[in-house]
Amino acid sequence: MALRIARFSAGGDPKFGAVEGEKGAEVVSVLEGDPLYRPVEFTGERFPLSEVRLLAPVIPRSKVIGIGRNYAEHAAELGNEVPANPLVFLKPNTSVIGPGDGIVYPPETSDLHYEGELAVVIGRICRHVPPERVPEVIFGYTCGNDVTARDLQRADGQWARAKGFDTFCPLGPWIETELDVSDLAITTTVRGEVRQSGRTSQMIHDVVSLVTYVSSFMTLLPGDVILTGTPAGVGPMEVGDEVSVTVEGIGTLTNRVIRRG
């Protein structure tokens, strides 16, 4: 069953719900518990989408897996070779924030970049997943922003600090459980100006290949997120910038860059 799963707050504890209805008049139908861990069951409670606060649609209990240089033009713009195999790195789950949350500009960097991406949410524990079974382990898809301190990435020679600060992994606005991701448009805007415009068909390693590869050496758990790489056009963000990542068929994830308070 195709659903648009949101995690949200309506003045109390976070809830999960299915976003339904026409654009501009959507409602959120509340679900029993977390749909990652139990069958979908509606409580009968409903809220207008305009009256709730959307949260990160998933908080990975284990890990966020990033894929570097998965678009040839992006690798080239930073002067890098295209890797033969997927280039895998990890982001801590503490880096995850939701729609509307602030991306904190740390004082340790002076070159903070956006990276708009398609994000894959894993739905079941799995290992050594063959290509033909990948659809069985995917819960759905959302938008991601792999925020990166580019100067720290260059200085450290590895990426844990550059990509691991708190707030460096915005996800949202919700999870689409059924979607053909073979050729979707990905767009990133900063202050309304288009900075990235690519398509998932430009990936060097597609979603099926990525899940198969990553699961060949690490166990994937429900709620794990795979960021599938970013198209060309990455660049700096400044305090006060509003950054939006739109993935066709999913929606738009918007965050503002703020100073550390």
UniProtKB/TrEMBL annotation:
MF GO annotations: acetylpyruvate hydrolase activity; isomerase activity; metal ion binding
GO BP terms in the entry: carboxylic acid metabolic process
Domain called Rv2993c-like N-terminal: residue spans: 4-57
Record InterPro entries: Fumarylacetoacetase-like_C, Fumarylacetoacetase_C_sf, Rv2993c-like_N
Organism domain of life: Bacteria
Entry keywords, A to Z: Metal-binding
Stretches assigned to the Fumarylacetoacetase-like C-terminal domain: 63-257
Residue ranges crossing the lipid bilayer per the database entry: none
Pfam families: FAA_hydrolase, Rv2993c-like_N
Protein name: 2-keto-4-pentenoate hydratase/2-oxohepta-3-ene-1,7-dioic acid hydratase in catechol pathway
Organism: Thermasporomyces composti
Taxonomic lineage: Bacteria, Bacillati, Actinomycetota, Actinomycetes, Propionibacteriales
